[in-house]
Amino acid sequence: xxxxxxxxxxxxxxxxxxxxxxxxxxxxxxxxxxxxxxxxxxxxxxxxxxxxxxxxxxxxxxxxxxxxxxxxxxxxxxxxxxxxxxxxxxxxxxxxxxxxxxxxxxxxxxxxxxxxxxxxxxxxxxxxxxxxxxxxxxxxxxxxxxxxxxxxxxxxxxxxxxxxxxxxxxxxxxxxxxxxxxxxxxxxxxxxxxxxxxxxxxxxxxxxxxxxxxxxxxxxxxxxxxxxxxxxxxxxxxxxxxxxxxx
Length: 247
Known about the structure:
- By secondary structure, the chain is of the alpha/beta class.
- It contains 9 helices and 9 strands.
- Strand 4, helix 8 and strand 5 (about 185) form a beta-alpha-beta unit.
- Helix 2 (about 40-50) crosses helix 3.
- It starts with a strand and ends in a 5-residue tail after the last strand.
């Protein structure tokens, strides 16, 4: 199963073929370091996995669950593509799905142009690249650069996931609906100035509550739920989702 994570740091720990879509280059150095520490000290990992302790670490709990379900302790960086998940991407995919041969050439031109423009920007997750340049590919995973490989990966998605994906929020939902795939997105910031045409009952969408309602109206089977962590102004906990049986 493939999963596109719209804007999140992640490591491939469960055997799921995950793909990150984000204009930045991922840097998993700190995350790999934390994982390696917990694997090297299983007793400490077990303590940190306990939810009611002040030292609780969600990563430790995840590793404990994985160790119970699989004997494979390998931790791999997922593949990634440096791309904006936006309306343009969705519309380009829509044109390709129409099966017009000329649209494949348009896709190649679009992808190569966007890729080259984005790669001119050296922004990394965490703000900086790994200190050891030789370990960049190991720490970042496998980048998908070829336009046809990217197209195959996107059209072959089984699930779309976005946790606080910012400007990519609505496009992530639209992408899943276009592909007729299930999704789970946790919206956070609304960015009303960047989406002035976004409307709900004739009013501009300016609040988080309005954004969630706007997204749920895209499909009559879309649901919402509250995730089990404390919500703040900058860390929203409402997930908008569509199940596989409802697409």
